[in-house]
Amino acid sequence: MVFMRPLRQGVLLGMLVLPALAAPAGSERPLRLAFSPYAPWKVLGPTGLPAGPYVEIIRALAKRMGLPLTFRDCPLQRCLLEAERGDVDLVIGVRGTPERRAYLHFLEPAFAPASPIRFYQRLQDRRVLRSLTDLNGLSVGWTEGVQFPPPLHQHAGLIRDLSPTTASSFRKLLMARVDVVPTTEGRGRALLRQAEFAGRIRLAPLVVWPEEDRKIGLARQSPYYSLRPRFEQAIAAMVADGTMRRLLAEGPESRSASEPATGTASGQAGRCTACPPPKPAVDAPPARH
C-alpha cells in the first residue's frame, strides 16, 4: 500500500478543484458549446454523445483551460440566437459574418484553414459549372441559416430553394427539384459516402473560397467573455504544438490536403499559422488534377 504525505495530498486536492476555480467570478454554470450537428465535423457518436473533430477541439480547449464543459444541442439558427443572448458560450463551424460579429468574438488565431465551397450536380446533368454566372437561372439547394462567402451569398442570378439540412438538399437534387447544391468540401465528401447518394451525384468544377479561415466564436454576452485572452493563448498553443492538426486528422483534411481544387476560386484564404499557401485569385484558370 502506498501512503501519501500530507503536503502531497494537499497539492493533489488543489489540482482537483482547479476547474471550479478557473471559472470567472459570478459564473454559475460550466462552459457551454452550442452543438448543431454538421457531419463529419460535429456528429452524435454511437453512444449518443457529441463527437467529431470540432467537438474534440472544444473538449481539448476546455481541458487545457481547466473549465468544465457541457453541450447545448440546437439547430443552427437556435444556436445563434442562444449565443446572442449569452445562453451558450462557444460556437465552432460558424462563419464570421458582420451580423454575427455583433454578438460573437471570433478568437485568434484561426484553428484551421478555410474549407472551400464545392458544388454538386446530378450525375446525369452535363451542364459545366465553372463560374458563378453559370448558376444564373438555376435552382440552388440552400441550407437554412448557412452563410456562404459573399461572392456566392450575394450573387443575384441564382434561385434559392431552402432546406433545413444539406442532406435534404441532396435528396431534392436527386429528385430534380433543384439543379445544384453548394456545401463545404468536407460536408460534401461525407454525404457522398452515404449509400443513398453514392454514385448518383457528381462534383462540379466551380470552387468558391471563403475570405477567412476557421475560428472559434465566443459569445460577447457569455459569463466567460472576460477570459477571451486566455482562450486565445490556449488556441495559439494548440496550433503551435500540433494539437489542432492532430484532432482534425479525423476529418476530411487528412484525405484531401494533397488533392488540388479544380475550377474558379473566389476570395483568398485568411491568415493562419496552420494554413497552406494562398488560394488562386478570382478568375484564375482551373487547376488540373
Give a short summary of the structure.
With 289 residues, the protein is α+β, with helices and mostly antiparallel strands.
Give keywords.
disordered N terminus, elongated, 3-stranded antiparallel sheet, 18% strand, D-Maltodextrin-Binding Protein, domain 2, 289 residues, disordered C terminus, alpha+beta, 2 domains, 10 helices
How would you portray this structure in words?
The protein is α+β, with helices and mostly antiparallel strands and 289 residues long. It folds into two domains: 25-113 and 213-256, 3-Layer(aba) Sandwich (D-Maltodextrin-Binding Protein, domain 2); 117-208, Periplasmic binding protein-like II (D-Maltodextrin-Binding Protein, domain 2), CATH 3.40.190. Helices cover 30% and strands 18% of the residues. It is built from ten helices and twelve strands. The protein has helices at 6-22, 53-65, 76-85, 98-101, 150-153, 166-174, 185-192, 228-240, 243-248, 253-256; strands at residues 31-35, 43-44, 50-51, 69-73, 90-92, 104-106, 117-122, 139-143, 159-163, 181-184, 201-208, 216-219. The strands form five sheets. The chain has a three-stranded antiparallel β-sheet with strand order 5-12-6, sandwiched between helices. The longest helix is centred in the N-terminal third of the chain and has 17 residues, at 6-22. The radius of gyration is 21 Å and the shape is elongated. The relative contact order is 0.18. Residues 1-21 and 252-289 have low confidence and may be disordered. This is Amino acid ABC transporter substrate-binding protein, PAAT family (TC 3.A.1.3.-). Pfam families: SBP_bac_3.
